[in-house]
């Protein structure tokens, strides 16, 4: 009997010393801060063993998978988080980002729409949804989202760059040149933007813009954008 009592006492000590759900969550978040993604997941899994309905743990676990570029693994975890708490924009937004990375543009737009409806103040949604719409070749809608992102912060080179791409797709070369010019003015290291600007100048305006177009293409090549070389060889030498 003494041995049985002793075993029971030891079991009580082990149980009482095990970390709480809150402690496991805190440890997981600390691992996230240190970019120790796999270790963070192990803590979130232990928290979920105690409370399978912990939506924060599920969302954080999905983010840890996302940060490791394990998008296929992240999506079902975000789906679980949504099933537990569909009122938070975060898992909708994060699942959309995972689908965007996988090229599942229609699914991404659907989730971005849900996230936007739940919290319209989250302005990152506009740019990311614009990228998904651009991938779907829904150029007008993409431009509207890029415009919304620029209203929040007009100094975003990548937004102007992708706006320019959407405008090219929407047969608006003049508008595209304006957007791409803004892109290179804000980020002089974007070789792709210089390339698109040069090609658009020369395609839309011909000889009148040849000198500036060639200058853009040569800048693109100097920045490592090798696609510019064939245009330079054909039209600028």
UniProtKB/TrEMBL annotation:
Keywords from the named record: Repeat, TPR repeat
InterPro entries registered for this protein in UniProt: TPR-like_helical_dom_sf, TPR_rpt, Ycf3
TPR repeat feature ranges: 21-54, 55-88, 89-122, 123-156
Protein name: Tetratricopeptide repeat-containing protein
Species of provenance: Algoriphagus ornithinivorans
